[in-house]
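for the recovery benchmark. tokens below, seq after
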């Protein structure tokens, strides 16, 4: 295990009715806020009314940035920053899924920046000051509610870039699982796949001596495998929604990655798919993950797949390592594509091989060279092809 400095300062208000605690917390940082939200789900569910009532009761004035798209666009960040500057707003509050929260994080940084917001996505060293960020989470998936990352898309240049600095981590987040009762089945499945992928990006890692982190990771994966299908069948099952929600935060907030040299591979490969085809992030991950696993399974990595098969999928340890590894990959596929009913190929999404080389060459070099297994851009093309 490597050295690390543990510091995960987001205050979490978890459970039913916890929204009431957010106003007094926000008041410690200011009394004006930009309210950032998506395409209208929070209006349909009535959450919007609850949030503005909470702001009113606490004497917090607000402006709004509605219409943040899934795979949030840099245009929304620019618009949000302009509103913050015009009204000298002191805080940013996202109400929604990862897209709204990510957008809010970059709005909060761009509000203190004189140049174009896209500069901050390309080069995080330009982020010098950030307005305090808060979130009310409505979809269990990205972990953005408790991490400092954000991912912004520039469709004009086919770029989707993830980054972030410590100050972009929310000061406080409300995690009320009942807000996720209305998440449609397809997004519930995609969110579950995303939580699992965050966990696996850290789990499939070469840092030795991380027994503790690995066992915690296995628990998060088992939580998703157990509760994902229940949430699909029974959208209002509080227990399932609550376990998925807390798993979403833990998968990426640093608990799993502290102590590991940790470079992610599948996410950067997926981000190219989203950048070129604007697909749902978790769907891309589910399609890529088993193909990536097959591609990286070899003599050096098989023992990790044995752990994964035995400890996560409950496969009997009394078999040859490759048999266990292959069964584990098959079980992963069956979980995503049969149990969670997700699309299983890029072809199903209308994606052909027309941009594979271009996309593969854009994947960050470190993701390929310093990941679990060293890959070249040609490997990435092969992985994409296996997804057709
Ligand atoms: O836009 P609205 O109307 O709110 O509808 C959303 C959207 O259509 C809907 N939704 C959310 N909560 C709902 C709901 N519908 C009904 N009831 C609710 N309670 O779901 C759709 C998807 O929302 P979105 O926020 O886009 O989903 P998600 O949370 O999966 O976020 C995806 C984005 O986060 C990035 C992804 O790349 C993608 O851009 N990621 C962010 C990360 C981070 N910050 O650390 C890490 C991840 O790996 C990921 O890359
Ligand atoms: Zn993700």
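predicted aa per position
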């Amino acid at each position: 295990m490597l050295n690390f400095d543990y510091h995960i300062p987001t205050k979490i208000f978890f459970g039913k009715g916890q929204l009431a605690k957010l106003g007094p917390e926000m008041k410690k940082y200011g009394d004006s806020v930009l309210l950032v939200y998506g395409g209208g789900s929070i209006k349909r569910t009535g959450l919007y009314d609850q949030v503005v009532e909470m702001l009113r009761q606490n004497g917090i004035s607000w402006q709004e940035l509605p219409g943040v798209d899934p795979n949030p666009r840099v245009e929304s960040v620019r618009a949000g920053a302009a509103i913050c500057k015009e009204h000298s707003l002191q805080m940013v509050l996202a109400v929604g899924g990862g897209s709204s929260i990510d957008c809010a994080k970059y709005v909060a940084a761009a509000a203190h920046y004189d140049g174009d917001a896209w500069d901050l996505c390309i080069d995080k060293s330009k982020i010098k000051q950030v307005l305090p960020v808060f979130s009310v989470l409505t979809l269990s998936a990205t972990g953005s509610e408790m991490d400092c990352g954000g991912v912004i898309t520039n469709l004009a240049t086919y770029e989707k870039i993830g980054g972030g600095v410590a100050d972009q981590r929310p000061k406080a987040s409300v995690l009320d699982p009942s807000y996720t009762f209305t998440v449609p089945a397809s997004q519930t499945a995609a969110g579950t796949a995303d939580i699992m992928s965050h966990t696996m990006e850290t789990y499939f890692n070469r840092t030795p001596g991380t027994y503790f982190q690995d066992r915690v990771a296995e628990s998060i994966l088992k939580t998703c495998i157990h509760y994902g299908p229940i949430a699909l069948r029974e959208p209002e099952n509080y227990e399932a929604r609550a376990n998925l929600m807390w798993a979403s935060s833990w998968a990426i907030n640093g608990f799993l990655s502290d102590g590991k040299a940790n470079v992610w591979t599948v996410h950067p490969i997926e981000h190219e798919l989203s950048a070129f085809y604007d697909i749902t992030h978790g769907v891309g991950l589910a399609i890529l993950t088993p193909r990536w696993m097959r591609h990286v399974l070899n003599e050096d990595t098989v023992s990790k797949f044995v752990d994964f098969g035995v400890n996560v999928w409950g496969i009997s340890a009394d078999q040859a390592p490759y048999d266990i590894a292959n069964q584990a990959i098959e079980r992963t596929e069956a979980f995503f594509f049969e149990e969670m009913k997700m699309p299983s190929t890029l072809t199903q999404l209308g994606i052909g091989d027309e941009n594979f080389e271009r996309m593969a060459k854009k994947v960050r070099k470190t993701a390929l060279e310093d990941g679990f297994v060293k890959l070249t851009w040609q490997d990435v093309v092969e992985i994409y092809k296996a997804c057709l």
